[in-house]
Amino acid sequence: MGYSARVHELLPPITLETGLHWLDLIGVLAFALSGALLGVRKRFDLFGVLVLGCVTAVGGGAIRDTLTGQTPPLFLRDETYLYAALLGAALAFAFGERLARFERTLSVFDSAGLALFAASGALGAINFGLGPLGVVFTGAISGVGGGIIRDLIANEVPEVMYRRDQLYATAAAAGAFTVWALHPHVTPFQSQLGGVVVVIALRWISRRGWARLPVRRLSGE
C-alpha cells in the first residue's frame, strides 16, 4: 500500500458538508474573538470575557435553533462549537492587544461566520416550513443575534442598529432571502452556498463604501 493510500485511510475525504462545518467553526471562533475583545476593552475579568465571547459565538445559533424547533441548541448537541467559542475567547483574553492589530483579517472571518449562520438559519427555517418572511427573519437573527446579545451585555447600542456604512444585518437578510429563492430550484447545499456568496459580496461592497443605508434626521438635529 502506497503512502497516499495510507493517508486516504487515515484522513476522511473532504466533502462539501465537512467543508461547511469547518467554515462554520471558523465563524464561531471569529465571533468569539470579536465578543471577547470587546470584553477585554471593557476591562471584564476572565470569566466575563469568556461569557461574552461564547454568547457572541453561539447566541445567534441558539436563537435560530429555538425558532426552528431544534432543541437543545446545536452547540449543546455538538460541543465542538462550544470548544471553538471558548478557544476564541481565551485567545482574545491572552493576546487581545496583538489580535486587535489584525482587525481586517478578523473581519473577513466575521463576515464568513455571518454568511454561514444566516444561510444555515434560513435553511433550517425552510425545513421547518416557514414562509419567506419567517425565513429571512430567522436567517438574519441567526447571523446577528450573538452580536446583539454581546452589545446588550456590554451596555452598548447594538452595532447593527447604526453601522449604516457596513451592511451587516441587511446582508444577512439578503443572504437568507437568496437561500429561500434558490431552494426550490437547486440542492439545499447549493442554495446555502448562494446565500453565503450574497452575504460576503454585500459585506465587501459596503466595506468599500459603495453601498450604505439611508439615515433619517429630524429637523434641528
UniProtKB/TrEMBL annotation:
The chain crosses the membrane at residues 20-39, 46-64, 80-96, 108-128, 134-153, 165-183, 189-206. Pfam families: Gly_transporter. It comes from the Bacteria. Keywords: Cell membrane, Membrane, Transmembrane, Transmembrane helix. Signal peptide: none annotated. InterPro entries: Gly_transporter. The keyword Membrane applies. It is a multi-pass membrane protein. Residues 22-95, 108-183 form the Glycine transporter domain. Its main location: membrane. It is found in: Cell membrane. Belongs to the UPF0126 family. PANTHER family: INNER MEMBRANE PROTEIN (PTHR30506), UPF0126 INNER MEMBRANE PROTEIN YADS-RELATED (PTHR30506:SF3). This is UPF0126 membrane protein. The lineage of its organism: Bacteria, Thermotogati, Deinococcota, Deinococci, Deinococcales.
